[in-house]
Amino acid sequence: MWSKRKEDEVPLRPERPAATPGAFGPGVEPQRREISTMSSPNRTFEPETGAVRSGSAALGKNVTVKGQIVAREDLTIDGEVEGTVECHEHRLTIGPNARVQSNLKAREIVIHGSIQGNVEAADKIDIKKEAKLVGDIKTSRIVIEDGAYFKGSIDISKTAQVKSPPQSQPQTQPQPVSQPAPQPASVGSPIGAGTPTLK
Amino acid sequence: MKFGSTAKENLTKASEKNALSTANRHSSGFEQFSAMLQRPENLSILDMSGASQANVSFITSLGHRMSTDDILATMQQCFADDFLENQKVASKAQRFIDQTLTFPDESFDGALVWDTLQFLVSPVLDHVVAQLLRVMRPGGLMLVFFRADERSPRIPMYNYRIQDQRTLSVSPRGGYQNVQFFHNRVLEKLFQKAGSVKFFLTRDNLRELIVRR
To answer: Cβ contacts (< 8 Å) between A150 and chain B: which residues?
Structure first.
């Protein structure tokens, strides 16, 4: 079906331009992009960049992870995590049932549960009233609700940057579909089989 | 000294609530403390009332680094309902000491101790003061409050929020039976290992101290 797409066919989205080579950037293969859209109905497509933008991932309250978590999309953790969590350029939410013994890094971090570890956010850290945080904070902005428990130091840096891991390919270039998962708990691969949600 | 079986009393009576509702108060002690904060260098300040938006914003907006250690929450966690009696239990006292002021030596240029020390009894109190002096840098300042009303049956517990460099917002967070009164002489002895102690007596029966390490 997808290989027969031609200019005179009615597009799924009227605003989408015709699928001509190079229309969405150099090196972008329309077939692969469309396949991922069909297999992930909750994903939105950005024709300007040719990138597939996914929803958020979540670890439920009955999930325990020991190791390194690297997310390239918004992530919510409501279970137990021991290790490190990196959510570069995205939001990391620690749910009310979460018990996290990890160092956390993200663009923005919202804390409802319990954390023992250092927390670093390039943009903002939001500590809710039921949160319990023991560790050091480094961020550009911080919001603390009355009732929150925090023990540690706060370092406000206007130029705080969360360094993203080096990416070998820019977003406009295709990623292999069958990319092997480097870590068992890795989520948010650019083109994956859907939004993994562990319950 | 008298120790009740249940030392913790909830301040829920309407008259007491009205008297202890959130209010702004001028603090000469804090005014002197905040004068230190006007230094351009990046100071390290400890707030022992736990984290609050007002205090964090005030301290960090001046370019300083802030640490918090909610000692009252640790007290309630370790000593529970029989707050004063449990401080005499060695295991509970040790558990409290192990969790309190666990910072390296000479970590801070200033400490906002507020009224936390008046709820401790010796030897726990002596140990906490020793720890405070240990984590302060030479010349560092501590702001400490003690109730000055000897006849009051209860010592109210407050949250202190910084409004500006001389004004604090004070809101109640509970209270305990008044079992000890800190005379000036007692306070001088308590901080005898400090460099200096300066007293500020206020109108609302609160004694403010600036202790220099």
So the answer is: 50-51, 68, 70
Instruction: Find the domain containing A61 and state its range.
Output: 57-156
Interface contact A146, partner B, CB < 8 A = yes
Do A152 and B65 count as a contact with CB atoms less than 8 A apart? no
Q: Does one domain contain both A85 and A120? A: yes
Q: Are residues A150 and A69 in the same domain?
A: yes
Higher confidence at residue A3 or residue B51? B51
Among A23, A38, A53, where does a domain finish?
Answer: A53
* Calculated CA dihedral for residues B90, B96, B101, B104, nearest 10 degrees: 60
List of residues 6+ apart from A165 with CB closer than 8 A: A70, A86, A88
Q: What is the ipTM of this complex?
A: 0.81
Q: What is the pLDDT of residues B124-151, one digit of tens each?
A: 999 999 999 999 999 999 999 988 776 7
CA dist., res. B176 & res. A96, Å (int): 31
Are A94 and A102 spatial neighbours (Cβ–Cβ below 8 Å)?
no
Q: Is B50 on the interface with A (CB under 8 A)?
A: yes
CATH fold of B14-212, please?
Rossmann fold (3.40.50)
